[in-house]
Amino acid sequence: MDGLLHQAEWVRLEAMSGLDQAAQSAQGQYFTPERASALVASLPRLSRAESLRILDPGAGSGMLTAAIVDRVCREGLIARLEVTAVELDSTLISTLAKTAELCRQHGLRTGVEVEVKVVQGDFITLQTGLEAELGDDFDLVIMNPPYKKLAALSWQRRAMAAMGWETGNLYAAFLALGVDSLGPGGQLVAITPRSFANGPYFERFRQRLLSQVVFDRLHTFESRSTVFADTGVLQENVVFTATKGGAPRRVTITSSHDHTDGLSERTVRYEELVSPDDRHRFIRITTDNDDDRAVKAMRSLPASLSTLAVKVSTGRVVDFRARQNLQDTPASGSLPLVYPGNLRGGRIQWPRSIGKAQGFQLLHEADAKALLPSGFYVVVKRFSAKEERRRIVAAVWDPTQHGDQPVAFENHLNVFHAGGEGLDRELAWGLCGWLNSSVVDRYFRTFSGHTQVNATDLRSMNYPGEEALRRLGHELDSLPGQEELDQLVSKMTLETAAA
Ligand SMILES: C[S@@+](CC[C@H](N)C(=O)[O-])C[C@H]1O[C@@H](n2cnc3c(N)ncnc32)[C@H](O)[C@@H]1O
């Protein structure tokens, strides 16, 4: 007879083939494949106990329930397992009940008393309000929660705020209620997107999460495409366990290419995961020595954007709000409008045929607010394309190339400027070279698992001193190949920082 998890995999495949596509994306119905489920269930600590109470919110076809039951029965440390599996979608309940029955039978065969209670309902409704209807003393919460943005005025967002949690995404609400459902010392194990680890959007969520739990283990996948390959999900995921009310200790970080190959493992001090001096509470996941070196190199740098007197803001033109001002091709009297598609190899090609307006026309006095005066600016894409090798893609707007005139930057760009004015040429090229370097890319990836580059991320980094940046900028007026750039960056900036 095949193992429990393998049987559950068949149930999963059958369930997935019957999913209604609209409901699948509306309710985030991406079920965890067998190998990834086993990996999630392998992370929490299990010790000898009479019984264990487990919660699986958003249980889908029950893969994670099956994976943890499988592990507990194999290790034989626990006599009785009580799992509560919650699922919103009524059409999945019979499937979930099938997996629950497989679990019960597996328990009978292996001498563990396994009870799986299937609850049909909305996890947010059940666990917010005056009573946690499912209970708040679980030993373990295991989840692959649904992902969906929550609008500011949505009832879920308000219900969570009443519980003291700021959650802009359904997955964060699930994590929050997962924490609330645990008794002291209970463990949360989850597979989620990495987006909560940095950025302003999740900051208040992160602050509270980190005040309630300590992370024990984290696992990242180097390849974002393969973990949920058969579900069409393309994003960077992290698997982690955290203990409610635990004391910070060393954290184990593992990574694998996908969920099928061997793991590489390391441990880091808790302060390396969450730096005590970081008021944004970024969660930094360094997976190898190169990551460590990048973090050390960055930390040793002397400057910040404020000591450099440089500011970074998002481009001021929100195109759908400024339709009347936009011109497909720049005509006389219109000013340059720059989109991410204009960035080419460290420079800005303008005008360029990218299917976006290239001219900005002043119609009213107030339109001038959208412009920056003539000058050198460094721009960074706010969203890098998946096929781009680097997360941070920077380029210089050079007024000597484009004419001495004001310029408008579209909102999908971050713009480096000197208090609303241009930078000088050397500083601009120095910053551009630096931002495009591999060390910055590595460092960035230790705290950001998505393709978004926020202005806060750029503000939170250390930078080489002004002199070093100018020296680097002096050498550049376009971007050389990556290797050559990295050598130059290392010589002009890192070596001097280390000296
Ligand atoms: C990403 S899937 C994961 C399913 C399962 N945990 C697994 O790992 O295969 C999330 C599940 O949560 C369910 N769901 C969505 N919103 C929910 C809610 N508010 N309450 C309970 N379940 C919900 C979806 O129907 C879906 O089955």
Task: Explain the overall architecture.
With about 500 residues, this protein is α/β, with parallel strands linked by helices. It folds into two domains: about 5-285, Vaccinia Virus protein VP39 (Rossmann fold), CATH 3.40.50; about 310-499, Adenine-n6-DNA-methyltransferase TaqI, Chain A, domain 2 (Alpha-Beta Complex). It is about 35% helix and about 20% strand. It is built from 17 helices and 20 strands. β1 (about 50-55), α4 (about 65-75) and β2 form a beta-alpha-beta unit. α1 packs antiparallel against α4, α4 (about 65-75) runs parallel beside α5 and α11 (about 290-300) packs across α14. Bound molecules: S-adenosylmethionine (SAM). The site of S-adenosylmethionine has 22 residues, from α4, β2 and α6.
